[in-house]
Amino acid sequence: RPRVLSGIQPTAGSFHLGNYLGAVRQWVALQESHDAFYMVVDLHAITVPQDPAELRRNTRVAVAQLLAAGLDPERCTLFVQSHVPEHAQLAWVMNCVTGFGEASRMTQFKDKSAKQGTDRTTVGLFTYPVLMVADILLYQADQVPVGEDQRQHLELTRDLADRFNTRYGDTFTIPNPYIVKETAKIFDLQDPSIKMSKSASSPKGIIDLLDDPKATAKKIKSAVTDTDTVIRFDREAKPGVSNLLTILSTLTGEDVPSLERSYEGKMYGALKTDLAGVMVDFVTPFKTRTQEYLDDPETLDTILAKGAEKARAVAAETLAATYDRIGFLPAK
Ligand code: ATP
Ligand code: MG
């Protein structure tokens, strides 16, 4: 079985619809066909300030949501990144084969740091992509299911893996991005020119899966569309409507052309009402299942302990090989 690895940040508590459609939904499908490793990336979360109690709570909330979404600890390895110390250890080595200029070209860092200002931007945020490189290479992952925003970080991963292999001998599998075109970028409901994002979306622009379903329905009904009236998929000319069609199509399994036909002659209100209904039917049981997992922290922690043990077995082997190749003296 080919191996997949992916992660999600425990920031903000609730996952948003972009996280689910762009990433987590694929994770659930891939556990059937792949040797799957999925983690909650708390080391990545602290690249921006976090309240300790909230981070701890949000980490459990993230795990509970992954289970509620359909991850099965019998069929995948589910763990918390900081439980596997090899991530930080390999990240250091990879930092030392990354060019400063190369890291400086990462657009996500440029965007996020520009918003924060240099005095509030941490060095951790700068090396975030290199930690992600280590996350992936530790597991010798063949594929990495992510949203479109991670494509550049995947390119960096491939470059660094190849560089290390050339310099020190074959050590890492060169991974491929696994990006599902249709859902790779879910857009902000109020500004369909930007991606829906935990850190950049306004409350009205983002659909949080754990939000009150009534509030979610309201947000969909006030989503930005355009002054035209035709319900048609056109990413350039009609980004708002296209985003709603993408979401509806993915959640119902009905393809976009057939949706376009069924809304012929209808108004935007009809599309929004239907989508609001579909969303409410999706998030309501999701919320309940998440809460059930949260109500049983012992089971949750047991799942995570087993996951970390399985992950460490793989990670330790890769780290040992890396240390050996690079010339570190073995500890006797
Ligand atoms: P932040 O804005 O803090 O970076 P985020 O919203 O990007 O948060 P992450 O935890 O960084 O959330 O991302 C988890 C996964 O969700 C990644 O694979 C990412 O590519 C994917 N993802 C995030 N936003 C979207 C989106 N709008 N559409 C599709 N996929 C997305
Ligand atoms: Mg992100």
Describe the model.
It is built from 13 helices and five strands. By secondary structure, the protein is mostly helical. The strands form two sheets. A three-stranded parallel β-sheet has the order 1-2-3. A two-stranded parallel ribbon has the order 4-5. The longest helix has 30 residues. The model has no long low-confidence stretch (mean pLDDT 96). The site of adenosine-5'-triphosphate (ATP) has 20 residues, from α1.
Task: Describe the protein's topology.
Layout: E1 3-8, H1 17-30, E2 35-40, H2 42-45, H3 52-69, E3 77-80, H4 86-95, H5 100-104, H6 107-116, H7 123-138, E4 143-145, H8 151-168, E5 176-178, H9 213-221, H10 239-252, H11 256-262, H12 268-294, H13 297-326
Parallel strand pairs: 1-2, 2-3, 4-5
This protein binds adenosine-5'-triphosphate (ATP) and magnesium ion.
